[in-house]
Specification:
The complex is a heterodimer of chains A (about 80) and B (about 475). By secondary structure, chain A is an all-beta fold. Chain A has one domain. Chain A has strands at about 5-10, 20-25, 35-45, 55-60, 65-75. Chain A has a 5-stranded mixed β-barrel with strand order 1-2-3-5-4. Chain B is an alpha+beta fold and about 475 residues long. Chain B has helices at about 10-20, 35-45, 70-75, 85-95, 185-195, 210-215, 220-230, 310-330, 360-370, 390-400, 425-430, 455-460, 465-475; strands at about 20-25, 50, 60-65, 105, 115-120, 140-145, 145-150, 160, 165-170, 175, 200-205, 235-240, 245, 250-265, 280-295, 300, 335-340, 345-350, 380-385, 410-415, 430-440. The chains are: A mainly beta (about 80), B alpha+beta (about 475). The interface between A and B is medium-sized, with 25 and 32 residues.
Chain lengths: ~80, ~475
Amino acid sequence: MSTYDTFINKDFEELKEDELIEGVIRELTPGKKKYKSMYARFKVSKEPDKYPNRLFIRLGRGQLVQKPCSMEILEFINPFPEGV
Amino acid sequence: MSFRYYKDNREYIEALRKSGDLVDIHEEVHWDLELGAIIRRVCEKKAPAAFFHKITDYPNFRAFGAPIATYRRLAVALGLEPETPIPKIAEEYTRRTKGQPIKPKIIDKKDAPCKEVILLGEDADLFDLLAPMVHDGDGGRYIGTWHFVVAKDLDTDFVNWGMYRQMVYDEKTMVGPILPFSDMGKMLTKYAAKNLLMPFATVIGPDPLSAIASSAPSPIDEVDFAGMLMGEPVELVKCETSDLYVPAHAEIIIEGVIIPNVLLDEAPFGEYTGYRTSPRDKRGVYRVRAITMRKDPIMTVSNMGTPTDEGQLLRSFTLGLEMERLLRDQGIPITGVYMWPESTHHLVVVGVKPIYANIATQIGQLVFGSKLGPWFHMVVVVDEGTDIYNKDEVIHALCTKCHPKRGIRIEEHGVGTPLNPFASPEERLYGRAPKVIFDCLFPPEWPKSMVPIKVSFENVYPKEIQEKVLANWKKYGFPD
């Protein structure tokens, strides 16, 4: 199980069960690459063990939601134009 | 004529150590929040700068925190005595920067310390650089907090040095806001219209005067302005992957391109206002092509938050002096301009000889209408008898001379920034901000006999009594 976090620009209560998000997740494994961002499509559950990865939610100004969620990464997306 | 200054951060660090304005930290400190927390406390306590010798995961790096967060350190950076009072620092800064711009000098790569290590292509990895997690809740690790970004206009020779915060996104990518009214924002608009990549170079750990120049709101090109502060040309060296030039004595250079018309999530970040105001949002994307640096680089870190950090101090200092220049150029009979760092450069205090009616309104309209107007929204105008550097005196004037109705003038439709904590979400989105003038002047048309008399030691006692009291002060038993 890997641990990530993501930011949502709304209140936690507005996050729906199994909501599909296309956006940035951050790797939280300790070490030099901690907080590396990745652009992905992922599904979020408020149940901490439903999906293989643990996901912490932060609100738009960095407020941490203490209760962890779980997440399934459906695909990683390259946000950059070809060759850049 | 060159002035006394420090060619790089290392000489400056040594000067701060000698003046007692730096603490060497040999204890191992983690880059993930611990280093940031120490620097935050340094800022809030106005403590000496922090120099970190041992940082987890980054054995070849050292870090320099809160480099110019006090007026003592600013005085040292300018080669003055650390006790130099603020008006004297301002006088020296103004003296150096009112002459002719000094063009930079290009030096050979072999003489440039920032080229001791050159990492190109795949070897250039941002995670090999010490980028701290500055505050808990930030959107990422901020590598650019006390640095500047070099960019060149597409159609002219204009080169901008500006402090645009940069967050590490991945190995090759940084993100950060590039506000449309900023110099680099205007440049990027031109590149974006033609869908061209815009070269950039991030300069980390520049000498202190180049750092000051990059954050100064002067119409003079920043590199020439830095030369004026030094009294001799800044030494530059050419980048590896573009035609940009960077200070040869800096610690780290990150080269690459800004991708126009592509935005990625950045922030939140603890900002100069002392709040995290701007939310996570899509912002500018910098792709890295090369990193050059010294063999044992020193990362500079500013921790923005509640006062006082160097952003607040230097922006207040330089914005105030630029406003003073503007008002004097317009022939307004001002006696001085000052912005308290604690106001996070939102409040401009102007001293003036009130020789005609509504002069405070004229002053407010001029400063709000200037290019720098978006950065502040309050102007307090006091008379020449009020010490603009003295908070007690200004608060006294504000609370006694500013009429609660006719003394307060509000302009509803000003230009603001998305970072204003007081602004509504809609105002932040569109960069709108109301502005307010506090006129703390007794109207000049009042009959002389009707003007209240200020009851102070200096104002209501004969000169000979004042002199006698001052001469005998210690004899009376007072310590100072």
